[in-house]
Amino acid sequence: MDKTFEALTRLGVSRESLARLEILVGVLQAWQQRINLIAPSTVGEIWQRHILDSAQLLPMLPSKLDAIADLGSGGGFPSLVLAAIQPAKVHMFEANAKKVAFLQEALRQMKVQGQVHRVRLEQSIAPLAMPSVQVVTARAFAPLEELLGYAEPYFKAGATGLFHKGQDVDAELTQAAKSWKISVLKHSSLTDSKAVILEVKEISHVDR
């Protein structure tokens, strides 16, 4: 745990932010007993596997940041962690009603900026009153090829994507390249030697 807190401090996480993260962990643990928000095998490693794993996006965020869109927010990672640490508003997109209720309760108790949108991304977010954001995030949500389709409206508006990906990232990139031209950087994960953060700058459809 000490090493995790040291890593969070190196990332610039303040004492005030740590206090909000502790509230988040408490809310998560309480709700986890009723609904499956995170893998049960990771409940004892929340700070390393979920908090730090989310917070590692901080150095990749642009300096001028007003809002973030998090697709398939689920248990609130990375969205609630980012909301706890930095001032930009986080828009969370989640279809499951129970998870929406959890996200709203966590925001309330943490007293941070955020808005939860209950929507199925398969129905396309384009018709929504789409919030203006500079960054799109997603963690353990969908294969890259599919994820890029959901995020496309934001890329068209100039946003950057920061996507957590695991050991199958190269296979996902190969598959995605069949449908998309992608400008992407790989960042090694701080929490998993087999994982990366994909920083996606631009996408466009492959000409058929």
Q: What's the Cα radius of gyration?
A: 16 Å
Shape: globular
Distance between the termini: 51 Å
Strand order of the largest sheet: 3-2-1-4-5-7-6
| Helix-strand topology string | HHHEHEHEEHEHEE
Fraction of residues in H or I helices? 25-40%
Major pleated sheet = 7 strands, mixed
Q: Please tell me the total number of domains.
A: 1
At the fold tier of CATH, the topology name is Rossmann fold
Beta-strand proportion: 15-25%
Structural class, by secondary structure, is alpha/beta
Word description of this protein:
By secondary structure, the protein is an alpha/beta fold. 38% of the residues lie in helices and 22% in strands. A seven-stranded mixed β-sheet has the order 3-2-1-4-5-7-6. It is globular and about 50 Å long. The chain starts with a helix and ends with a strand.
List the main descriptive attributes of the protein structure presented here.
Rossmann fold, 7-stranded mixed β-sheet, alpha/beta, 208 residues, 7 helices, 22% strand
In short:
With 208 residues, the chain is an alpha/beta fold. Helices cover 38% and strands 22% of the residues. The longest helix has 18 residues, at 15-32.
Secondary-structure map:
Layout: H1 2-10, H2 15-32, H3 46-55, E1 67-71, H4 79-85, E2 89-94, H5 97-110, E3 114-118, E4 135-139, H6 144-156, E5 160-165, H7 169-176, E6 180-188, E7 196-205
Parallel strand pairs: 1-2, 1-4, 2-3, 4-5
Antiparallel strand pairs: 5-7, 6-7
Helix pairs in contact: 1-3, 2-4, 2-5, 6-7
